[in-house]
Amino acid sequence: MLILSRKPGDAIVIEGGIRIVVVQCDRGGVRLGIEAPADVSILRAELVEQVAATNQSARLTAGATPRALPGGAVSPR
């Protein structure tokens, strides 16, 4: 894991044209702006985890075969 110190207005660029900009910092947290190509999914980790847990539960209940989704979530189809 890379750990950086950034100030509002500073940015980092990730391979593939993904740019992350620090919009605001305060005691409550950090606001980030993310620019990425249209074909790149940007998902909050807690949503991916929630969908994966729901799909896992549904798969176990229905006995369906899982299918991978972007971000590591699993669909019961």
Topology:
Blueprint: E1 11-14, E2 18-26, E3 29-35, H1 45-62, E4 67-68, E5 74-75
Antiparallel strand pairs: 1-2, 2-3, 4-5
Share of helix, binned: 10-25%
Separation of the first and last Cα atoms: 33 Å
Number of helices: 1
The overall pLDDT, averaged over residues, is 86
The count of domains is: 2
Question: What's the assembly state of these chains?
Answer: single chain
Helix-strand pattern: EEEHEE
Give the low-confidence spans: none
Number of strands: 5
| Widest beta sheet: strand line-up | 1-2-3
Shape: elongated
| Rg from Cα | 17 Å
The secondary structure category is alpha+beta
Instruction: State which percent range the strand residues make up.
Output: 25-35%
Largest sheet: 3 strands, antiparallel
Q: Can you tag this structure with a few keywords?
A:
77 residues; alpha+beta; three-stranded antiparallel beta sheet; 1 helix; 5 strands; 31% strand
Structure description:
The protein is α+β, with helices and mostly antiparallel strands. The strands form two sheets. The chain has a three-stranded antiparallel sheet with strand order 1-2-3, with no helix packed on it. The protein contains one helix and five strands, in the order βββαββ. It is elongated and about 50 Å long. The longest helix has 18 residues, at 45-62.
Please provide a brief summary of the model:
The protein has 77 residues and is α+β, with helices and mostly antiparallel strands. It is 23% helix and 31% strand.
